[in-house]
Structures are given as structure tokens and as C-alpha cells.
Specification:
By secondary structure, the protein is of the alpha/beta class. Helices cover about 45% and strands about 15% of the residues.
Length: about 625
């Protein structure tokens, strides 16, 4: 019997560099990598979406469409190319009407995109259903992503004061624990809805890396039992679960696994492919990738990582390793076997310990315990730290972190996924500030939080309490975002650059629609380059024409006869003779104006005109030749 095959979605050029190096990989680096990828055999390569369109324009002054086209041309259809988008929000935060969605998907597929992975921060199926249908109808592959999240921890009660308070805390009844919402069945039902709508792949997308191994085993098993389409697992290693949970997914039948190549793996990114390869080999599973080609990519990626050093937050680089040629030390090799044995025995603690030993040996970053304990995405945590620092209130971090469960529950138990993670984190900081100042809760609600509670981001996992909605928005009724209020952005004429439109074609206009602030600057720089190029071309053309005319002139005959010259500078206003004319002494040959006076130039003798050097309106200087007489 043939071994089971595991397909790989490589994230290196999108999620990998975004997670580890702030999406700063330049097109020149991508161009060096693409030829090496052609025969690597990845099932899918994620090359676009996420922060790429914004970052390559904002920081690299490069075209995101060009990045997609170049990847498509290089791969020649040998690997599917995928992008990530936020359902109805695409790459931004504004819900777009179907006309914008369809225009974007059509342009993306035309430029080489095959798979669009669609997620919604609220797991609201209404926000992804139209995208799934459109992508399929346009010839793409719709990948429905179910966003993993956890139920919030119970809000820590205030410490009891006084004897009666302490007595009540010891012997009083405790409130019932809130009902669990994010059960396995919740995620499976969302996945089944997406499959019914036409999703060709279902991804359990764990953007915060919070899927612990036993949970990964449970959810992946149930997804496999209830779906007929391939199941993909996407996670990150930030809190320390990533590698171990991927091993569990592998054992429990996942079809596609998201990984990064060695130098771009681990830490806040997805696990390294090379470690997954060793685990799969020992499990008798064939990784459906050309690992020799991966080795060539890995060598080039080391140079790429060195180029990105200023954005690299890791304290040290991983040890160099080639799973095809390098021998593992006996003790580390044993840890791989131990991890597999623990995984099969559902010994999560043992599995995690073995995986952490492996990662420590190869010098991958340690688990982020703060993120793990807080059960929030790493980016959300760092944003809260930065916000409090700006406010001069860093001492409130613990208070703000404790308030996250309250804010989540009040807002409808929203998952902590971009952008809701930033909205909740920011509001928890504001709530901590309110309490410190003695103000009522939610005295300062952000515009984004108000929009979330109002219903503009979509349906929350549990309904928002109408009384709370009225408190925050002034209206107890839910109000979804009205896409009919969307107004197409202007495509202005740039008068100072030749009167052209800022966006010169459909793909550029889509950038104005999706990322207006950064696209405006990017497109103006393109029009400036084109204007300058036109100016240079016109100047070169004029110079070439002048040179051509000079070359075509017959060489002037040397002056041999007597010459009549201008006695002073002036402008010729009348010429009365031409070559070959016979003239008499005193005859007026021409008239010129000097010092506002007209002056007749007369022939000094009877003669024949050989040449006339000037014509009407010529400006001549003193002693300039006017007429030559024949010898």
C-alpha cells in the first residue's frame, strides 16, 4: 500500500516574512527565490494577501500586482498560488459591496492567483459566502478559513474586603461558569457551512497559535469525519504549541499543513518544514515535496534573512540543518520518537516537552509565556504594551489584560483575530484607564469599538446585550454596515504631471479602493516617473532631430568675395536682393532696425550678389556678414 501523502502550503514568502521580518522582503529577493521554487513541488505557495499589498507599496515602493504576476510567471502552474483576504473587507477594514469584491477577485485571478483563503474576524458566514461563490465562478479555488479562538477566562473578581467579605468568599456560592461557546462543534459547524457554500478547501486557521495539541487532535479529527474537502491546518509557534499541534494534526489525518522553510520558521511564524519532514518520515507519511529543491531554497533564504537583519527580532539564528544529509544527535533523535509516542498516547505534557527540547536544540525562539498565559495574539499584546507606554500608564498592563475577557463578552464574545483583536485590546486599555480615574466603564469608547457593538463588522458569536449596545451606541438596535453607502473613490487628474489620471488602469484603481492612503503616494510616484521619462524622451528626440538637421546641411562655401557687414547690431526688417542679382552703386540692398531707427544698407558699387546671409526678422550683431559680392 502506498504511504499516505501530506501536501504542504509554503508560507515563506508571505506569512513567514510577515511574522518574522515585518513584510520587508524585496522583489529582488523574491526574484532570486522564484526559480528555485519552480520544481519544489509545493501544493500551494502563499505569496500574496495579508500585509503584502500594503507593505510593498508603503515600505518598498513596489507594485503588489507585479509581485503576483512574477510569481505566476515563474511557477508556470506547477504550484498553486494563494492569498489571504478578510472576506468582505479584503485587505482593509471597510466592508465592500459585491461589485468591488468581484472586480478584485477577477483581477487577482487574471494575474495568476489560484487559491483565495477567505476568513472573517467574527466567523460570520454572511461575510464570506459571496466571496466563496465569486471565486469559484471566476475559476479560482475558494479556501474557507475558520478562525480558531478560545473562550475567555473568567474575569477575576475584585478582592474581598473586611471580615464579612472574606467570609463570603470562603463559604458563599460561586456564580456559574459561563457557557462555552468555542467548542469543537462550533468550528466544525462553521466549516460545514463553508463547504456547503462551495469552499474547496477548509482551513483551521489559528492565527494566534493558541491551539494546544489535544485540541488540534480533537478538532482535526472531527473536521476529517464531517467534511469531504481537504483539511488544512495553519498555526504559529508564538506560545509554544505550534510544532506539537502540527504533529497532532499530522497523526489525525490533516491533508495540508502550512509550514515555512527553515530560516523563516518557528518563533512567531509557522513550524519549520524540515522538522515536519522528520516527524512525517517516522510516521510513514510521505511529504509531497521535493526536499532537494527545498535545500536550494533554504541556502538562498539564509542570505535573505541576513539582508533582513534590521527587522529580525530573534536573539540568534537557528542552527544550519539539512534533514537529507545531516545526522541528528542520538538524544535529539530520541526526542522525535518520544514526541510521537506521547502524541499517540494523548500525553500533551510529554509531547510539548519533547518538541520544546527539539526546538531549543536547533535554537528556535522559546515559547512566549506572556502570550500563552494571556491567551491573546502576540501582535495584540505588543500593541497594548505600546499604547500604555504612549499614555504613560505602563503600570496598568496587568489591569488591562484582566479586562480583556470582560470586553470580549460585552462585545459579543468576538474572536481575537485582526482587526477585532486590536479593537478589543485598545478598549481594554481604555477601560483600565477609566477605572484608574474613577470614571464609569466605557467612558471612552473608540469609534471602532462602537462600530463593532453597533453591528457594522457583522454578527458576533453571541448577540450583544441591547442595553449595552444602547449604552455604547445610543441605539439598542443592531445596525449592520450598509454597503450601499459605499462611494467609489475619485481617480483624480494629476494636472502637474501632464493631466493624466492618478490610477492608469483597473488594477491600480483597485489599489485606490482597497488601500487609499498608501496607494495615493505610491501611484503618484509612478506617474511622476512616467512624466519624467516622457520629458527625457522628448528632450532626447528634440536633440536627435537637431543633430539630424545639422548633419543634413550642406557645408557652407567659404567667403572669397567682398563682404558688406552690419555697422551695428539690429534686426533685419527688409531684404531686397537675392543671389545672382546685378546691383548699382547706392542701391538699397536691405533695411535693418537698430536703436529704434531704420537703416538702409546700400551697395558701395556696381556688382553682382553672390550670397545673402540674412533674412527678414533675423537679429544680427555688429560686423555680422550681410551680403557677399561676386569676385
Amino acid at each position: 500500500m502506498e504511504p499516505r501523502k501530506l501536501k504542504i502550503r509554503d508560507l515563506t514568502m508571505r506569512d513567514g516574512q510577515q511574522s518574522l521580518f515585518a513584510t520587508r522582503m524585496s522583489q529582488s529577493t523574491i526574484d532570486r527565490l522564484l526559480p528555485l521554487y519552480e520544481n519544489a513541488g509545493f501544493y500551494i505557495m502563499e505569496v500574496w494577501g495579508g500585509a503584502v499589498p500594503d507593505s510593498v507599496m508603503r515600505y518598498l515602493d513596489e507594485s503588489p500586482w507585479n509581485r503576483l504576476r512574477k510569481a505566476s510567471e515563474a511557477m508556470k502552474g506547477k504550484s498553486l498560488l494563494s492569498a489571504l483576504s478578510r472576506g468582505r473587507n479584503l485587505f482593509g477594514y471597510v466592508p465592500y459591496p459585491n461589485s468591488v469584491l468581484e472586480g478584485f477577485y477577477k483581477e487577482a485571478i487574471k494575474n495568476g492567483l489560484n487559491v483565495m483563503r477567505i476568513f472573517d474576524a467574527l466567523n460570520d458566514i454572511d461575510n464570506v459566502k459571496d466571496s466563496i461563490k465569486m471565486i469559484n465562478s471566476l475559476g479560482g479555488i475558494a479556501d474557507g478559513a475558520v478562525c480558531y479562538t478560545v473562550d475567555p477566562k473568567e474575569e477575576e473578581p475584585a478582592k474581598p474586603s473586611g471580615f464579612a467579605g472574606r467570609l463570603k468568599s470562603l463559604f458563599g456560592s460561586k456564580p456559574a461558569a459561563p457557557e462555552k461557546i468555542f467548542t469543537d462543534e462550533y468550528f466544525v459547524e462553521k466549516a460545514m457551512e463553508m463547504e456547503r457554500l462551495g469552499a474547496k478547501i477548509i482551513t483551521l486557521k489559528d492565527m494566534a497559535g493558541l491551539v494546544n495539541p489535544l485540541r488540534a487532535a480533537s478538532i482535526i479529527s472531527k473536521l476529517k469525519a464531517n467534511l469531504s474537502v481537504p483539511v488544512d491546518f495553519h498555526t504559529h509557534c508564538t506560545p509554544g504549541y505550534g510544532l506539537a499541534s502540527s504533529v497532532m494534526a499530522l497523526i489525525h489525518g490533516v491533508d495540508i499543513l502550512d509550514t515555512n522553510i527553515w530560516w523563516f520558521g518557528g518563533g512567531s511564524a509557522a513550524p519549520a518544514l524540515e522538522l515536519i519532514y522528520i516527524f512525517a518520515d517516522r510516521l510513514g507519511i510521505e511529504v509531497d515535496v521535493n526536499m532537494e529543491a527545498v535545500g536550494a531554497i533554504r541556502d538562498e533564504l539564509l542570505s535573505a534573512r541576513k539582508e533582513l537583519k534590521q527587522f529580525d527580532l530573534a536573539e540568534r539564528m537557528p542552527l544550519a540543518f539539512n534533514p537529507l544529509t545531516d545526522t541528528l544527535p542520538a538524544n535529539i533523535s530520541a526526542e522525535f520518537d518520544k514526541a510521537i509516542a506521547c502524541a499517540k498516547a494523548n500525553d500533551e505534557e510529554g509531547l510539548l516537552a519533547a518538541c520544546h527540547t527539539i526546538e531549543a536544540y536547533f535554537q528556535f525562539p522559546k515559547p512566549n509565556e506572556l502570550v500563552k498565559d494571556a491567551e491573546v495574539p502576540g501582535g495584540m499584546y505588543s500593541n497594548m504594551v505600546a499604547q500604555l507606554k504612549t499614555l504613560g500608564a505602563s503600570d496598568l498592563l496587568d489591569d488591562a489584560m484582566r479586562l480583556i475577557p470582560k470586553v470580549r463578552r460585552d462585545a459579543g464574545l468576538v474572536p481575537l483575530v485582526t482587526p477585532t483583536s486590536q479593537i478589543v485590546g485598545s478598549q481594554a486599555v481604555s477601560l483600565a484607564m477609566d477605572r484608574k480615574k474613577g470614571n464609569p466603564d466605557y467612558s471612552n469608547a473608540s469609534n471602532q469599538f462602537i462600530s463593532l457593538v453597533k453591528g457594522e463588522y457583522g454578527h458576533t458569536p453571541v448577540p450583544v446585550d441591547p442595553a449595552f449596545r444602547e449604552q455604547i451606541t445610543g441605539d439598542a438596535t443592531e445596525h449592520p454596515y450598509d454597503v450601499n453607502s459605499y462611494r467609489q473613490p475619485e481617480n483624480p487628474v494629476v494636472a502637474d504631471l501632464g493631466g493624466v489620471n492618478l490610477a492608469s488602469n483597473d488594477e491600480e484603481y483597485l489599489l485606490l479602493q482597497l488601500l487609499p492612503s498608501v496607494a495615493n503616494g505610491f501611484l503618484r510616484r509612478r506617474r511622476t516617473e512616467e512624466f519624467n521619462a516622457r520629458q527625457d524622451a522628448q528632450a532626447k528626440e528634440a536633440a536627435a532631430q537637431k543633430a539630424k538637421e545639422e548633419a543634413q546641411k550642406e557645408p557652407e562655401e567659404p567667403i572669397t568675395g567682398e563682404v558688406l557687414s552690419a555697422p551695428m547690431g539690429g534686426r533685419v526688417i527688409e531684404v531686397n536682393v537675392k543671389a545672382g542679382d546685378k546691383v548699382k552703386e547706392g542701391q538699397v540692398l536691405l533695411v535693418y532696425e537698430a536703436m529704434k531707427m531704420e537703416n538702409d544698407v546700400e551697395s558701395p558699387k556696381d556688382a553682382v550678389i553672390k550670397r545673402v546671409f540674412v533674412k527678414t526678422d533675423d537679429v544680427v550683431g555688429t560686423d555680422a556678414p550681410l551680403v557677399e559680392f561676386a569676385d
